[in-house]
Write a structure and sequence with these properties.
Number of strands: 8
Number of helices: 7
Low-confidence stretches: none
Strand order of the largest sheet: 2-3-4-5-1-6-8-7
Distance between the termini: 105 Å
Order of helices and strands: EHEEEEHEEEHHHHH
Mean pLDDT: 83
Largest sheet: 8 strands, mixed
Strand content: 15-25%
Oligomer: single chain
Number of domains: 1
Radius of gyration: 27 Å
C-alpha cells in the first residue's frame, strides 16, 4: 500500500492551545508545541506551533478545507506555502530508505507519527534556509557596496531593521530548536530510534541545520561590522559638528570684541 505524507509551512506560528480547544478529533499525542491527531479512515494530522501542518491520507479537497479552518489560528499567514512530500510503501519485507520515500513492513501509529515529524522538520528547515539566504543576499549587497565605494549607505533606522530581522530569525530558530531533537519515545524504543536515525539521514536534517547556523553566523559577523562603521561615522559627524560650533563661537567672540 502506498501512503503519501505532505507537510506545509503555513505561517510563522500557530496558536496550538486555541486550535486544540476547537478541533474535536482524537488526539494521540499532545504537548504545548505540537498536536498529533488520528482521524477516521486511516488519516492522520500533525500540527506544530512553528507554523507547520502535516497530512497523511488527506485528499486535496480535504487539505484545502483544513487550511481555511486553521487560518484564524495562524500568525503571519503566508500567501505562498512551502511544502514537502514523502511516500510510504507498506508491506515491505524490511525497512528501506529511498529518495523521498521509505519502505516499511507494517508501520505503527508511532512510526507514522515519527515519519510525519521528520517531514515537517524538513519543510521547517526549508523555510529557515530561505529566510537565511535572504539575509545573506542583503548582507552581500552591503559588502559589495563597501568594496566599491568604501562606505555603506545605511542609516540608523535601516541598520536597526536589518539587525531586527537577523535577531528575529535567530530567536525563532532557538525557540524551535527542540524540533531537531529526537522524541522521547525513541529513547526507549530501539526500532523507533533506528527509524528516527534513518529518517534524519534521509532528509539530511543535521547538515542542513548546520548550514543555516553558519549562514546566520556570517550575517551576525557582518552585522557587527556595519554597526561599528555606523558608530564611527556618527562619531566623526559629531566631532565635525563640535568643531563647527567652536569655530562659530570663536567668530562671534571676535566680532563682538574687535581689536
Amino acid at each position: 500500500m502506498n501512503l503519501k505524507v505532505i507537510s506545509f509551512q503555513l505561517a510563522d506560528g500557530i496558536d496550538i492551545k486555541l486550535f486544540k480547544s476547537s478541533f474535536p478529533a482524537t488526539i494521540h499525542y499532545a504537548d504545548t508545541d505540537e498536536l498529533f491527531y488520528v482521524i477516521e479512515n486511516r488519516k492522520y494530522l500533525y500540527v506544530f506551533k512553528y507554523g507547520v501542518v502535516c497530512f497523511l491520507g488527506y485528499s486535496e479537497i480535504e487539505m484545502a478545507a483544513f487550511f481555511q479552518m486553521i487560518t484564524p489560528y495562524c500568525k503571519n499567514l503566508f500567501t505562498q506555502r512551502l511544502s514537502d512530500e514523502f511516500d510510504i510503501e507498506t508491506e515491505s519485507p524490511a525497512v528501506n530508505y529511498g529518495y523521498n520515500k521509505i519502505e516499511i513492513p507494517s508501520p505503527s501509529i508511532d512510526e507514522l507519527r515519527l515519519i510525519m515529524l521528520n517531514v515537517s522538520q524538513s519543510v521547517a528547515l526549508d523555510y529557515y534556509n530561505q529566510q537565511t539566504n535572504s539575509l545573506l543576499e542583503e548582507t552581500n549587497n552591503y559588502t559589495q557596496l563597501l568594496e566599491r565605494k568604501g562606505k555603506i549607505n545605511m542609516g540608523g533606522i535601516k541598520l536597526k531593521k536589518y539587525i531586527g530581522r537577523t535577531l528575529n530569525l535567530k530567536n525563532r530558530i532557538s525557540a524551535n530548536l527542540y524540533i531537531f531533537d529526537s522524541p522521547e519515545e525513541t529513547w526507549e524504543n530501539e526500532n523507533l530510534n533506528k527509524l528516527d536515525i534513518g529518517l534524519k539521514k534521509t532528509f539530511d536534517l543535521q547538515a542542513r541545520f548546520r548550514t543555516i547556523q553558519e549562514g546566520l553566523g556570517i550575517v551576525k559577523e557582518n552585522m557587527e561590522l556595519f554597526k561599528d562603521l555606523l558608530q564611527n561615522r556618527n562619531s566623526t559627524t559629531l566631532e565635525w559638528v563640535i568643531i563647527v560650533l567652536i569655530l562659530v563661537e570663536v567668530i562671534n567672540i571676535l566680532i563682538r570684541n574687535p581689536k
